[in-house]
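[Meeting: bench + compute handoff]

Bench side (C.D.) handed over the final construct sequence. Compute side (W.E.) agreed to return the predicted structure before the next meeting so the bench team could plan truncations. Sequence as handed over:
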Amino acid sequence: MSDFTTSAKDNISKLETCFNVECNFDILERKVIIAGREAGFFFIDGFVQEDMVEKLMQFFYSLKEQDLKDIETFLKKGMPYTEIEKNGHIETVITQFLSGVVVMTVDGFDECILIDCRTYPMRSVSEPWKDRVLRGSRDGFVETLVSNAALLRRRIRDPKFCMEMFGVGKRSRSDVAFCYIEDKVDKQLLSKMKELINSIEVEALTMNIESLAECLFTKKWINPFPKFKYSERPDTASAAILDGNIVILVDNSPAVMIIPSSIFDITEEADDYNFAPVVGTYLRLSRFIFTIITWILTPLWLLLVNNPAWVPEWMKFILVTDDITVPLILQLLLLELAVDGLKLAAVNTPTMLSTPLSIIAGIVVGEYAVQSGWFNPESLLYMAVVSVGTYAQTNFEMGYALKFLRVVTLVLTQIFGIYGFVAGIIISILMVLCNSTITGKSYVYPLVPFDGNMLKRKLIRVRLPHSYK
């Protein structure tokens, strides 16, 4: 049953009210006569290809009365454009219109004609700043979902490659797409994800993919380790799809979500596969080593400094030789905060002022901080190493998860000594093992459950399976 009538005047009036035309300067309306019949066009300025609309108008003016016998005849003989559909449901028409589709109503037709000649403002598909590589593709996702889908389709020319669209948000009606290969994806996981996406009741995805992540993961977010893997690289997303994973695209977001994801997946990087297996293995193992160093270096150093008798003679150089005016634990905690302050300052500093900021930070946090007695050189050295290890993480959330665990271990070590250090290690391992995922699968797969072949592939850069299958 259609929500519209065969009267163009009534339909135009109804659409004017639904679209709130009078209060929106960017919603444009055009009333014309086509083959003796009244017709109305509605479109959003900036969302349509104006030259395409002009060409369609010129074609419509040349139509004859017999071309408008009924809506089916009109679509066959009087509509030269390909991306069209008819719809008589007002809610669907409103949703399509607000996403940029041109709405057309003609006298005598009780359904609207939706003409998809959208074009969204977008930046170039340049390489993302976060996921840069030394070798490989230089393109990246943008904020337009259709363009992101095209980047994936260009890499996966498989008829079983599917991209299903969903609408999320009562007000935003954000487009969300599930991308997967039909004969490789876990069907139970796919069904579960569809149920989750359809059960979301929220007004808008205000922060795009992060809002969607929080809607999908309904449990408590106490554990700091990331629940999903994000990427702005089409090659990374394509590889995940070919492995049988699901990639979720959200309109207005340049990052995609990859599920399921384990801690090994999150620590992977595109450069692991852009070089020969030996080099890729070295890069991967180096990253694992830096991960351990980032987590445990300063607590272990604090434990040894507090117990100098445990330090062998050949390692005495790690002890503090100068006077300690500020307790080491307080120095380390202040430096943890100072590093975050520098990160925030770097993000909010204009590019032209970044060099002066770096000079000021180097002088203040470096030389003057030591000379004033606030910090010992050893504290600065080890925190610098930890900061380098944090930046070596491909995932921003993973770096902060390690930071939180490091601070907890530092405090426990200072209070309880060796027992606090061991407790911090145990707490950290338990948080990794017990981290909940949206899929319900193990966060440390292929360790639990154990899969030897997959573990070998995660630890060592072996030959790509896609290159010889």
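W.E. noted at the follow-up: Residues 331 and 363 are 17 Å apart (CA to CA). C.D. will use this when planning the next construct.
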